[in-house]
Structures are given as C-alpha cells and as structure tokens.
C-alpha cells in the first residue's frame, strides 16, 4: 500500500471528493479504497452493504450493513412478508426468482437501498462516483444523476462471464454491462480480455484503461521469510505443501483438486494440501472430506478458511507450489502474491491467465477440469522436473515491473483526479 502523505492536508474545497460503491466483504475493495483514504488530497465516501468502517472516510450503510437489531421497514421487505403470509395467492410465484442464490437483482435489491444511494450522494456531493465491480449494490450508481462523473473498475467476471447466465438474468446483466460501459466516463480493467470485452459492449477505446490496481504490496509479499520459519509458524510438519488459496466450489474446481490430490499422494505421500479463503460453505468442505476419506487422503487435507490478509505471506512462503485450476477468472491477486513470494504457480489454462503465465516458462497451465494433468503438474514442481528457480526468478521480475502497488496506485489516483476535474 502507498505510504500516507504526512504533509499538511489541503483545504477541503481543493480535495477531490470520491464516492465509492463497493461490494463487501472484499479485500480487493478494501485495498482499492484504502489507496484513497490514505491520501489527504482525497475526501472519501463509501456506500456498501458491508460495514467496512474505513478511517478517514464517510461510511454509508445499505440494508445488509445495518445493525441486526434495527427493524426492516423498507417497502420490498413488507411486500415479501405479505406474500409469504399469502402463499396460496398466485403472486407468490412472482417472487420465486428472487429466492435463488444468484438472482436477477443479486440476492436482495431493496427499494430503500436505491433511495438511500441517491440520498447519500446528495449528502456527500461527490466530484466523482467510483464503482468497484458491478456486483450488487455497485450498479445502483447507474441510477444517480448523469451530471456526476461515473468511473467503473470492471472485474473480468463482470464483462467476460458474469453476464452469461441463461434467460432473463443474462439479458438483464448484458443490458446492465452495456449501459455501464457507455455511461462511464472512465473504465479500468485488469486484463486484455476484459478490455476487449468492454469495447464489445460499447465502451469507447479512449475511456478503457488497463490499470491493474491495487497491485501487490512488495513490502509485505516477498521471499524474505524462510520456508521452514513459515511452516513452523503455521504448525506444518509435512515435507511438501500444496497451497490452494482460492476457496471451494463452482468455477474454482476444488473437487478437481481433491481428485488430483489423491494422484499426487500416491506418488509423494508426505504432502499436505492447504485450503484457505472464506469462499465456499462448510457443507461443501464436508463433501470434499467425504470424497477424500473414500480416497484415503483426508489426513492430508487442511482447511484454515479465511485468514487475515497480512498473514497470507506465511502461507505462500510455506508452500512448494500454489494451485488454482479455475475455469473463469479475473487477474487473481493470489497468483501475483505467490509470484512475489517466489512460489511457482499451477493455473487453469484460460485467456486471462495466459496473459501472465507461459507454460513451462514461468509456471504451468492445466485444463481446469483435468485432475490427472493437474496432478502431473504438481508432481513436476515437487520433483523439480521443471526449472522452478527459473520460474520464480522470472515471476519476481514480472511482478516488480508490472504490478508494484506503489506504481499502480499513482496511476489510478491520477486518473481519478483527471476524470473528476
């Protein structure tokens, strides 16, 4: 992260007023917004359904961030309660799409949230509204007056696969992305694939900027901690450690990792597969453990769940290899952080990752759903059948030159001030 400027802050009327809409709880949003709260030349407001409690910022809360004891009096909640009390009426069936995990309005778009976003914007009087992804509640910024400049950071999923669900949801999301692409005064993306997708949705080429922020904090993520020291700190005694930092389920293909683990352990038994991240339910983990028990490898799996971001370097340094065979992806920070810590990576062979990893040159690429090839790649690293030191050396130079957080923070702040002006 950037070192805060300790000089005297400028007068309030010369500060750039930036109002963020953020999806939470997200370390990405926390770090991205933190770039601005640490800089006294910005006055920051944050609207979210998660209570981030940013220092040096005005924090505004939507429905999900409200204290649990506060009663819900919004119109949508009243309608839902009334319909639930009258399930025999045909109206009940109209609410079924809103009860799915991924819904037309991203879980719980409430009418009062829309009204609160407008009220908060009137109160804060931003020079610019900065939207972090299009996940709810961020796209509510599209309801704000057009006189307020809008800037969007698209995650790859927003434009490359988020809008590809079937039926009404796909149509809604496609229109949403199209409108946002045209409405925004500036768009940032973190991959060439996302940039091309934005252009396909109607964004003009001059407004789409490839800025991979917040980047990697190289003061925190680096090879300075010895592997043995990291393993002692994490109580790991296995000879080999495979780190799985993305979470469970869906496009992350954690089930494939379980199958691959059994193939790896048949060849290299003293290996521990460590899963971290808060993504994925405990029920799914228990399903994975049942499968692992059937394969006889449950004792070689460990799940530490969500860990503090500042503890992450210990996990990277403890690992011999980091694996992430995802089918869809953005620019995964865990890949960049592993590279910065000198850990070889095995990644899913998809376009966004190929922008960073060349097979057998600075990492290994595998078909996302092929357990045997994934196992072979992990074994190649553990047995040093590939030039691991060459991989890590190239990746350290790549991260330092392309995604040093100090450099990309300066670029994004300059763009914000330019658009706000």
CATH class of the largest domain: Alpha Beta
Instruction: Provide the low-confidence segments as ranges.
Output: 1-12, 68-73, 87-108
CATH superfamily of the largest domain: Glycogen Phosphorylase B
Shape descriptor: globular
Protein model, in words:
The chain is an alpha/beta fold. The chain folds into 2 domains: 12-215 and 404-420, Rossmann fold, CATH 3.40.50.2000; 227-402, Glycogen Phosphorylase B (Rossmann fold). Helix content is 40%, strand content 15%. The protein contains 16 helices and 13 strands. It has helices spanning 27-37, 75-85, 91-94, 111-124, 156-160, 167-183, 192-200, 227-233, 254-267, 282-295, 312-318, 333-340, 351-354, 371-382, 388-402, 405-420, and strands at residues 16-22, 42-48, 57-61, 128-132, 150-153, 186-189, 208-210, 240-244, 271-276, 301-305, 321-324, 345-348, 364-366. The strands form 2 sheets. A 7-stranded parallel β-sheet has the order 3-2-1-4-5-6-7, with helices on both faces. Strands 10-9-8-11-12-13 form a 6-stranded parallel β-sheet, sandwiched between helices. Helix 9 crosses helix 14. Residues 1-12, 68-73 and 87-108 have low confidence and may be disordered.
Summarize the structure.
By secondary structure, the protein is an alpha/beta fold. It has helices at 27-37, 75-85, 91-94, 111-124, 156-160, 167-183, 192-200, 227-233, 254-267, 282-295, 312-318, 333-340, 351-354, 371-382, 388-402, 405-420; strands at residues 16-22, 42-48, 57-61, 128-132, 150-153, 186-189, 208-210, 240-244, 271-276, 301-305, 321-324, 345-348, 364-366.
């Amino acid at each position: 992260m950037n070192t805060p400027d300790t000089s005297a802050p400028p007068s309030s009327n010369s500060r750039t007023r930036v109002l963020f809409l953020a999806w939470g709880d997200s370390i990405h949003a926390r770090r991205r917004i933190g770039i601005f709260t640490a800089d006294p030349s910005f006055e920051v407001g944050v609207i979210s359904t998660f209570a981030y409690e940013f220092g040096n910022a005005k924090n505004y809360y939507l429905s999900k961030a409200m204290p649990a004891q506060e009663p819900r009096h919004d119109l949508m909640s009243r309608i839902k309660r009334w319909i639930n009390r009258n399930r025999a009426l045909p109206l009940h069936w109209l609410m079924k799409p809103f009860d799915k995990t991924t819904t037309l309005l991203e879980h719980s778009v409430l009418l009062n949230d829309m009204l609160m976003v407008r009220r908060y914007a009137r109160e804060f009087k931003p020079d610019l509204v900065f939207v972090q992804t299009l996940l709810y509640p961020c796209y509510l910024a599209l309801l704000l007056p057009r006189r307020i400049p809008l800037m969007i950071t698209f995650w790859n999923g927003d434009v490359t696969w988020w809008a590809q669900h079937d039926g009404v949801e796909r149509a809604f999301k496609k229109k949403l992305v199209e409108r946002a692409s045209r409405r925004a005064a500036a768009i940032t993306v973190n991959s060439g694939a996302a940039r091309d997708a934005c252009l396909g949705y109607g964004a003009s080429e001059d407004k789409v900027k490839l800025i991979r922020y917040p980047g990697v904090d190289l003061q925190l993520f680096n090879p300075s901690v010895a592997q043995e020291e990291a393993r002692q700190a994490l109580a790991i005694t296995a000879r080999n450690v495979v780190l799985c930092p993305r979470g469970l389920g869906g496009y992350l293909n954690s089930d494939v990792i379980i199958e691959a683990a059994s193939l790896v352990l048949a060849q290299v038994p003293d290996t521990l597969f460590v899963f971290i991240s808060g993504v994925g339910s405990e029920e799914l983990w228990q399903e994975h453990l049942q499968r692992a028990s059937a394969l006889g490898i449950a004792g070689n799996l460990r799940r530490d769940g969500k860990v503090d971001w500042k503890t992450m370097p210990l996990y990277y340094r403890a690992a011999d290899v980091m694996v992430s065979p995802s089918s869809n992806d953005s620019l995964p920070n865990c890949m960049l952080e592993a590279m910065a810590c000198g850990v070889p990576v095995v990644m899913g062979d998809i376009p966004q990752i190929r922008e960073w990893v060349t097979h057998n040159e600075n990492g290994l690429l595998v078909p996302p759903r092929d357990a045997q090839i994934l196992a072979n790649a992990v074994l190649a690293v553990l047995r040093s059948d590939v030039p691991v030191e060459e991989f890590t050396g190239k990746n350290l130079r790549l991260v330092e030159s392309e995604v040093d957080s100090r450099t990309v923070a300066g670029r994004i702040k300059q763009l914000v001030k330019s658009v706000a002006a």
